[in-house]
Specification:
Shape: elongated
Strand content: 15-25%
Distance between the termini: 76 Å
Largest sheet: 8 strands, mixed
Helix content: 40-55%
Length: 351
């Protein structure tokens, strides 16, 4: 009896130590998935905030995913979620701190957490917030985040060198900087500068026509999971419109036509149901009032039926720009390749 009890205890300890299922540990029939990736590079990430990582557990879990061993994946993933949240954070941050967007296929948990991971690239406080958020997650939410991250690890098959490149990007990437305001030179010289916000405009003066504005071209694209999505491409309509203006007036991310940019509910594409037309593209402030207005329809034009039906179904639009020549079919790709394309996913506001 004592001998049998000792055997059970040893099996239980072996299961805890290795993450293997209890039945496999009891039969001493553990197996390993080779080769194990070298996960020591995860220690270089700021997101675990100096907490101890179980890189061996991470390596065995990733190896199990790459070989498709479901029993080991379930057992090791559970151990990681329940005992090693800092390691979970490191695995997820290695993916989502470098991706411009988690993509529409990611779970709501991951889409909510990913901005914290990106902010943690250069901000120790944000990195700590990313860890705290994961430690506060329910088991179900932690499972969603881990599954999303492991999808990338399993498909990508990243080598230690590729992981090191990711970490280097995290350490060295500067935060997104807005271009310098050309008026700053006048301010430094002691010259009083007035902006539109400083002016008490007379009644009847429309500030839209005093600021840079854009035209739009209708397009369609696909989400990462293959679902169709409406798209608007901006092009300058005034000489002062362009990439520098969009950098100053928006927080849109640089987009290289891969994946899907983040959704910002404050950006709205206004649509009118009565005539199936688009009215404008605006940023709504915290008070609910229109702030930045980038485009306003000069005339009412009913949209093609298929495009409107897609808009009505998806109720979000991918907005990207600026392109220099909207009639050029290669202009969008050229802007993305040059790193001169900003993008956001905006909500549709029907009226």
């Amino acid at each position: 009896m004592v001998k049998k009890h000792g055997k059970k205890q040893r099996a239980k300890q072996r299961s805890r130590r290795t993450g293997a299922a209890h039945a496999s540990a009891a039969a001493n029939s553990l197996h390993r998935h080779e080769p194990l990736p070298d996960m020591a590079i995860l220690e270089e990430l700021p997101h675990h905030a100096g907490r101890e990582l179980d890189t061996e557990l991470a390596a065995r879990l990733v190896a199990a995913c790459r070989t498709g061993c479901k029993p080991c994946q379930r057992t090791l993933a559970k151990k990681l979620r329940t005992e090693q949240r800092p390691t979970l954070v490191a695995l997820a941050a290695a993916v989502y701190a470098t991706l411009p967007t988690p993509g529409f296929t990611a779970s709501p948990t991951t889409r909510t957490w990913a901005p914290l991971a990106r902010a943690g690239k250069t901000d120790a406080s944000a990195a700590a917030d990313a860890l705290a958020a994961v430690e506060a997650m329910t088991d179900a939410d932690a499972s969603d985040l881990l599954e999303d991250a492991l999808d990338h690890w399993a498909v990508g098959g990243a080598s230690p060198e590729e992981i090191a490149d990711k970490v280097k990007v995290i350490r060295d990437a500067p935060p997104r900087q807005r271009p310098a305001d050309p008026m700053d030179a006048f301010r430094k010289a002691g010259i009083k500068v007035f902006t539109l916000d400083d002016l008490d405009l007379p009644d009847g003066v429309d500030p839209y026509h005093l600021a840079p504005n854009y035209g739009v071209t209708l397009m369609k694209t696909d989400t990462p999971d293959g679902q169709p999505m409406p798209m608007l491409v901006l092009y300058p309509e005034t000489e002062d419109a362009g990439i520098d203006d969009l950098e100053r007036r928006t927080d849109w991310e640089h987009w290289g036509l891969h994946g899907m940019p983040d959704m910002d509910p404050h950006w709205r594409v206004r649509a009118r149901i009565a005539d199936r037309s688009l009215q404008g593209l605006v940023h709504v402030g915290p008070d609910g009032e229109d702030g930045i207005e980038l485009w306003r329809a000069a005339e009412t034009v009913s949209l093609p039926a298929q495009w409107w039906d897609l808009l009505d179904r998806v109720q979000h639009v991918l907005v990207a720009g600026p392109v220099k020549t909207p009639e050029d079919p290669d202009a969008l790709q050229a802007a993305g390749d040059a790193g001169e394309l900003l993008a956001v996913v905006a909500r549709v506001s029907f009226a």
